[in-house]
Amino acid sequence: MRTVLIAALGLTCAMPALAVDAPSKPVRLGLCAACHGETGMAQIPGAPNLAGQRLDYLRKALRDYRDGSRDVPLMRAAIGPLSDADLDQLARWYSAQSLSPQALTQP
Ligand code: HEC
């Protein structure tokens, strides 16, 4: 019985895509993680935290960088020609992350 339970737990962990609310990890997350972190906590000075930011705001910011109406060459280069679907997935991912209180107290 115990073995079955452990096996079942293992299966649940191995299938995060089945979780209802949490979006699955975007394929393109690697393009962003060096600066914004996988969980949306900034990794370099000058990069903003994205965790927990509003979905509509993130979506708009990404489109504005892509079309140049928000003119930041760094972010434009990072986004490159990503599709709306890719940007949407990234926005969903970052808005679903929780802010880490520890990071908030850093200068
Ligand atoms: C080389 C570092 C770097 C990479 C890589 C990078 N970013 Fe950024 N990102 C920045 C910086 C710096 C800013 C602040 C730009 C500004 O002043 O508007 C920013 C701004 C943003 C913002 C706007 C945040 C706000 O509060 O307005 C979003 C959203 C964002 N990045 C998402 C992404 C996503 C998604 C990716 C991957 C496709 C990515 N970034 C890749 C450095 C980076």
Automatic annotation (TrEMBL):
Which Pfam families does this entry report, sorted A to Z?
A: Cytochrome_CBB3
Indicate the transmembrane segments per the record.
Answer: none
Signal peptide bounds: 1-19
The record ties this protein, via InterPro entries, to: Cyt_c-like_dom, Cyt_c-like_dom_sf, Cytochrome_c_Oxidase_Subunit
Which segments constitute the Cytochrome c domain? 19-98
Ordered alphabetically, the record's keywords are:
Electron transport, Heme, Iron, Metal-binding, Signal, Transport
The protein's name is C-type cytochrome
Organism from which the protein derives: Dyella jejuensis
